[in-house]
Structure to design on (185 residues):
């Protein structure tokens, strides 16, 4: 009998005002598949396929993370990978508040203490606004140039979430497993 796996990640969701602002960047570009505003999030750590038996112990540990709320400001756009054919277009942050990095470190420590192995890619805080694997590189470059001065709203981060992701033909569907509050800043 095979073990049930759940595809998990820990993230900060985009408040409605952020989603609305980021949606203004969506324009008809051949090969771009725009993210729906309600699915926008800033991933703190991707866990990937996680044994179902490990989810509740992880949730218990995530509840114990102590961190103050903080403010982030959206600003700038870019693409991944930086070299080669772009696959993702993103909106970044003007300044990554030190508490964001503190929260990320505490999430990592919690995941490792739970005996799980997170995806250990370097942290580049961003909101994925489009998948662009089918676009010609010139279209991505033109989009990035056109929106190079993009400045979005500021927002208070007062919680983070454990999400489960299911891949479907229409794209990824995210379901909140649990929400974790941060202390008032």
């Amino acid at each position: 009998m095979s073990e049930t796996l759940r595809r998990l990640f820990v993230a900060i969701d985009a408040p409605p005002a952020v989603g609305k602002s980021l949606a203004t960047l969506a324009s008809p570009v051949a090969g771009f598949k725009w993210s729906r505003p309600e699915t926008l999030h800033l991933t703190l750590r991707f866990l990937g396929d996680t044994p179902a038996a490990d989810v509740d112990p992880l949730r218990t540990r995530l509840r114990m993370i102590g961190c103050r709320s903080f403010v982030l400001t959206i600003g700038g756009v870019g693409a991944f990978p930086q070299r080669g054919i772009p696959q993702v277009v993103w909106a970044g942050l003007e300044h990554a508040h030190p508490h964001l990095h503190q929260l990320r470190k505490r999430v990592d420590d919690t995941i490792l203490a739970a005996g799980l192995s997170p995806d250990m890619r370097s942290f580049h805080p961003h909101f994925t606004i489009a998948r662009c694997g089918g676009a010609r590189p010139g279209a991505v470059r033109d989009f990035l140039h056109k929106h190079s001065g993009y400045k979005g709203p500021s927002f208070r981060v007062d919680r983070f979430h454990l999400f489960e992701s299911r891949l479907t033909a229409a794209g990824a569907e995210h379901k909140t497993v649990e929400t974790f509050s941060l202390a008032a800043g």
